[in-house]
Sequence to fold (345 residues):
Amino acid sequence: MSFVLRRPFAVSSNAFKQFSKPSSLIRSFHSNPKSSNSFFTPRTTTTTTSSAQSLLKSEALRNGFKRSYQTPSYQPASTTSSGNLTQRLLYGAALVGGTIFATNLIFNRETREDGGMPTYEREYLNQTFMHTGLGIGIIGLAARTLHTSGWSYRLMATNPWLVIGVGLAASFGTMYGTFYTHPDNYVQKYALWTAFNVTQAAILSPLMFMHPAILARAGLYTIGMMGSIAFVGATAKQEKYLYLGGPLLAGVAIVAISGFAPLVLPATAVRTLAWTENIWLYGGLAVFGGFTLYDVQKILHHARMSERGLVRKDVVNESVSLELDFLNIFIRMVQILSMQGSKRR
Fold:
């Protein structure tokens, strides 16, 4: 029952405050005030005509015309911006590598005693990761499609309680339908699994309002965090972290309550809302990072049971848990990065 409360509904309103406003283009038209009656003025001398032509051909007038219609959005990227992009990529790679090293150093001191991962466990885990990546891809593609069709605007304009109620019903219905469908019933199994992913995309489509750079960095950090934790869970001692199921369930209940706090508490309770937001953000990162460690070891445990014929092999059900872990971590990464960007402005 640990998956019941792992739902990414409590997207804080801070995630959608930093929308960029379209830049206005000011076009100035320069005219000679004395030229209003020039139509009725006879051209008397050749000197006047030549002076007018020289004025029109002057460099100052042409430069002024160019400045009036020049749009800064079409200027090529400077070397400074490319340098900043390279620095950010290096910073992200160093952060991912440091996370992997630190996680293994702290949590992976006791490795497996069976001389490594057997073939059937490796295949089971690889197939689960493949379905997880495919599910995340379906969610991202469906969210982008729904956002471009205007679904995000309509969703944000709807009553939040209605969104939560319908979203919970659709998510739990498709999720439990996927869980309780027999693995041999491929058509119904994958149809419900696809419907579950589309449901997540419909709820999370407003995240597409965020800057693509923030979404890309959040995805990179989420992959690095989950990858390092999954590596620890796969190489650690068998069933070492399966005891975390109970404490993590209690932790996710606290995180879920803090996520619903902005819908219940008044806006005047600033300090309480700040505490609940920190619990939802950073406490949620810790809780769902622990769920990733727990789920990986649970998958390996199910692989051993499946090898003995005790349970049916079902990598689709296993991937749903990892998808929920990824989505919850990703949402919090997006909010943290957007808050950091707003503080720098």
